[in-house]
Amino acid sequence: MSVERYGNSAWASTARIMTRNSDGTLHYYFVKLSELPPGLSAGFIDMRSQIVTGELAGPRVLGEFSAMLELYKTMPSIVPTPRGPGKCLDSDDYFFLCDYVVIDHRQPDPVKLAERVAALHHISVSPTGQFGFHVTPYDGKLPLVAKWESNWVSFYRKLLEGVYKLDIQVNGHW
């Protein structure tokens, strides 16, 4: 088994984990950690100020896992297999684990991308028949307002209003 720094995140340390299955084949995972893991590359040191810790780390990790799981259940071809969130045993840090996939950094075909996004929205089904999400999702460090609403316009207005209020808190009025 090995662990190596991999990728970038504005709120977490990220790494690729290599494991060996019982049949001898290799399997790779991608992990986001809410804190700098001991013994990992010193390249993480400069990211310490951006990493989310404390009482908000757990909800952020749960939000990301929950969103990824819903995407996977709806359209598994568009996201890596989410394996689970958790709390580290020896610290107050949290992690999110999914299968590792090689990322193609080329621009996607815009028509195919639009078709996949449209398909995702067409086949997804709300568990409540409303617009929203059952846990608070985050945009990096910022919580998004995603409480259940009976109509899309009301949901979207509250989502944007929440983002606007957070922006004012962080950046002040322009």
UniProtKB/TrEMBL annotation:
GO terms for molecular function: kinase activity. Signal peptide: none annotated. The keyword Transferase applies. InterPro entries: Fructo-/Ketosamine-3-kinase. The keyword Phosphoprotein does not apply. Pfam families: Fructosamin_kin. Keywords: Kinase, Transferase. It comes from the Eukaryota. PANTHER family: FRUCTOSAMINE 3 KINASE-RELATED PROTEIN, PROTEIN-RIBULOSAMINE 3-KINASE. This is Fructosamine kinase. It comes from Aspergillus sclerotialis.
